[in-house]
Specification:
Elements (H helix, E strand, L loop, with lengths): L1 E3 L12 E7 L3 H12 L5 E7 L11 E5 L6 E6 L11 H12 L3 E3 L4 E6 L13 E5 L7 E3 L5 H7 L7 E5 L4 E8 L2 E8 L7 E5 L1 E4 L18 H10 E13 L9 E4 L5 H8 L2 E6 L18 E7 L1 H8 L9 H25 L15 E16 L5 H4 L3 E3 L4 E3 L11 H18 L1
Parallel strand pairs: 2-3, 2-14, 3-10, 7-16, 14-21
Antiparallel strand pairs: 1-10, 4-5, 6-9, 7-8, 11-12, 12-13, 15-18, 15-19, 16-17, 17-18, 20-21
Helix pairs in contact: 1-3, 1-9
The chain binds flavin-adenine dinucleotide.
The site of flavin-adenine dinucleotide has 38 residues, from α1, β15, β19 and α9.
Pfam family, one: NAD_binding_8
Protein name: Amine oxidase domain-containing protein
InterPro entries: FAD/NAD-bd_sf
């Protein structure tokens, strides 16, 4: 699928036209594209964003479904990034403020609690089940994409430019080839999954936004002639996989909180026995702009997202029954396991003093539908403490005109903020070098 924005058409082949190929349409790739589109440089950027997934957004993806006849929404889930938390840097604070003013994000006033194993000295110690629920800072501002998490990425790709253009090609995994011949060199992108390895386009600059592209298991950068970079990534970065399940309940869950973090750190054995794989339980329907009422004013089904802990997610994915399983089977096992954990933990969640709206309410809703998802690389992990990637915002090979960026760089790694900062730095480098 190819989508080209309405920016002015560009005459190709002009010397002041810089062709840029971007691998990935997550927040990093979209920030690079948007920053180039906004650039006041004399150069024109002819940008193509390739996305292996079905839609843009990467780990800020949203899954939704609509009724074919009435066009009414049936469900919507932000099944990757839950929320954007208070910025740590001025640069991201001002970008978030810009997004807020443009209506791309809205504040989520949902109530957050953390549940952990307590000891008898704890204020909220509950003698029956020995867990405590603590409100998370009420004044902490949290934002979500409006009307969906991935709409931030879509909006960034619509950035107006009076000279540059961007094309977005989804469902296409691109592999990069560095082609050098007498007096000329360029990046050639070819179809990764296509038997003929069809040429997709030729570019002056290559921007790679996914650390997995450097993996030895992956062909994305195998012929890119950037071995030092691939080696650096593989020696320094690991990917943390986790499991997610999207759940539709037939009616609202009668608890007064919208996001529950299960803190396994204090007593992992006890917490796992009570909550199984679960680390985050989020009422997605409570986010601003998400559908809460049907056209007849009745309450809609409620959408919840369950996210596993790192340890339990890994344990599940590495379990014997999943060895050699197909992706479909893996998703089914994730779904079954996490829905069972959710159901088992509900009585405890509902009886914990801070979470239940009314002690007399014990009317547990039914799960009407659920979907499992495996995030093979949910978060980056820096292997060594003094890791190169923590101190740089992106990687530049000016000679080859190659830039790597993504949420594995910088101090805010593993977050939307880190991804944004890295994408912004990458675009500035590119503009500066041109
Ligand atoms: C379950 C979960 C919960 C999270 N919760 C939060 C949270 O609450 N707050 C927060 O700030 N962050 C959260 N994060 C982290 C945050 O979502 C990420 O840090 C951020 O979205 C990363 O953006 P990115 O653009 O760097 O990478 P991605 O979003 O992963 O984008 C990379 C994209 O590149 C594509 N791609 C890779 N190689 C190719 C290729 N060769 N050709 C074409 N396309 C390619 C991939 O398909 C992918 O879409 C969460 C992440 C997960 C998984």
């Amino acid at each position: 699928m190819i989508r080209r924005t309405a920016s002015l058409a560009l005459k190709q082949g002009q010397s002041d036209t810089i062709k840029v190929g971007i691998l990935g349409s997550g927040i990093t790739g979209c920030t690079v594209a948007s920053t180039l589109l906004q650039s006041s440089s004399d150069k024109k950027f002819d940008i193509t964003v390739y996305e292996a997934g079905r839609g843009v957004g990467g780990r800020m993806s949203t899954r939704s479904s609509f009724d074919n006849d009435s066009d009414e929404q049936i469900y919507q889930f932000d099944y990757g990034c839950r929320a954007i938390f208070p910025p740590k840097t001025e640069l991201f604070r001002s970008e978030l403020e810009r997004w807020r003013k443009l209506g791309w994000v809205k504040q989520w006033n949902g109530k957050f609690v953390t549940i952990r194993c307590g000891d008898e000295s704890s204020k909220n110690y509950n003698n029956n089940n020995q867990i405590i629920a603590e409100d998370t800072a009420e004044d902490e501002e949290r934002y979500v994409g409006y009307p969906r998490m991935n709409s931030i990425c879509e909006q960034l790709l619509q950035t107006k430019s009076n000279k540059s253009t961007v094309a977005v090609i989804t469902q296409t995994r691109a592999a990069a080839f560095y082609v050098q011949s007498a007096g000329s060199r360029m990046w050639q992108l070819r179809h990764h999954d296509n038997a003929e390895s069809k040429v997709l386009g030729e570019y002056d600059w290559l921007v790679c936004t996914d650390r997995n592209s450097a993996s030895t298991k992956n062909v994305d950068l195998r012929d890119a002639n950037i071995r030092p970079f691939n080696q650096l990534v593989n020696e320094n970065i690991q990917s943390i996989p986790i499991c997610t399940t999207m759940v539709i309940l037939d009616k609202p869950l009668p608890i007064t909180v919208d996001a529950i973090q299960i803190d396994h750190a204090n007593n992992p054995t006890s917490m796992t026995s009570k909550f199984g794989t679960l680390e985050w339980i989020t009422r997605d329907s409570s986010k601003p702009g998400r559908k809460q009422y049907n056209s007849d004013n009745s309450k809609t089904n409620e959408c919840w997202v369950l996210q596993s802990s790192e340890q339990e997610g890994k344990r599940l994915l590495e379990s014997k029954r999943l060895q050699g399983a197909s992706l479909e089977q893996i998703r089914d096992v994730i779904r079954e396991t996490m829905v069972a954990d959710f159901k088992n933990s509900l009585p405890l969640l509902m009886s914990s003093s801070n979470a239940c709206s009314d002690d007399s309410v014990r009317d547990i809703p039914l799960v009407v539908q659920s979907f499992g998802h495996r995030w093979g690389a949910a978060f980056p992990k820096h292997i060594a403490e003094n890791n190169t990637f923590k101190s740089i915002d992106c990687y530049l090979d000016a000679d080859k005109q190659f830039i790597a960026c993504g949420d594995y760089f910088g101090k805010c790694h593993g977050s939307v903020e880190g991804a944004f900062l890295s994408g912004r730095a990458a675009a500035y480098h590119l503009i500066e070098k041109e």
